[in-house]
Amino acid sequence: xxxxxxxxxxxxxxxxIGIAGFFVMSVVLVVRFIGYxxxxxxxxxxxxxxxxxxxxxxxxxxxxxxxxxxxxxxGTRYCGRCGRAFRAAYDFDTYG
Length: 96
Ligand SMILES: [Zn+2]
Known about the structure:
Layout: H1 4-42, E1 61-62, E2 71-72, H2 89-94
Antiparallel strand pairs: 1-2
The protein binds zinc ion.
């Protein structure tokens, strides 16, 4: 049969496992939160690869010319710097 000492040992072990689990959970949550904030602050590395095509962005329409890359106001059809015509995805809707 279980002695009192063993019972206390098992309860202590359960408490230790609970605290360790809680600690691991909080560390995972903190790491996830830091990653999320980091992506928000630094904008993520994958976004810079899509500069080639004009896209809907907070900046507006980014010129697809490799040497221009000018950020034009949203809804612009021609680049304000190099005059390149934009054929963005949202323009196809208006032309059918
Ligand atoms: Zn341009």
